[in-house]
Amino acid sequence: MMKVYAIIVKELKEYMLKPGAISWGLIFPLVFSLAFIARFGDIDHLVPGLVSISALFGTTSFVSSSIIFERRLRTFERLLLSPVSYGEIIVAKILVGTIFGLMVSTVTLLLVLHFMTYPLWSVSVTTLNLLLSNLTFAAMGVYISLAIFNPINVMTWLNIIRLPMMFTSGAIASLTLFPRWFLPIGLVTPMTYSVDGLRYGILYYYDVVPPLASALTMIFMTLLFTLLSIRSLRRLY
Length: 237
Prior knowledge:
Layout: H1 2-15, H2 19-40, H3 47-72, H4 76-81, H5 86-113, H6 123-147, H7 154-168, H8 183-187, H9 190-203, H10 211-236
């Protein structure tokens, strides 16, 4: 546990202010949220999606920035020479991405709450789903950053994956408004479970996925991406 903690502290010190983490991880989700607030005013139905988008971009931008720099500068080898396992490295990467994502998504949540007509339904349920969302997205970001052979292309592939997810998850428009054939696309999108889980905690209703199913699916995806990340790291080094 102390090894994981040491890696987390190192990551926060070295990569918190990296351009990729700040631009895509902090500025983009906040500006995106402010744009919707200025355009619509009454944004209650958009709040779960805006918070989920902040979590997605906050976590994945941070972990990808750190992994891109370490792969390009070949400092991963130095880390692997220390008495730390592949699993501990991956867990540390996921946790530090979760910490950064929680900071960004919490700021977004506090911002949009001021513009909501109705009060937040459950702080505890919202907090749980916010934590699960950030864990899932951080694990996904670590896996994508390690699965792509050339680290220069990581951010490009991340955006190819992240941007469509904003529209296939119900974050901007409810999946119930789309044709029935579109629903399977939404159900294979990790962000769908984050949005519906947060929607239940904030507004006390969900669109397509019940709250328990959303939570269990996010736990499963976190474990799956963690195992896949360990496998990818072993393959690279």
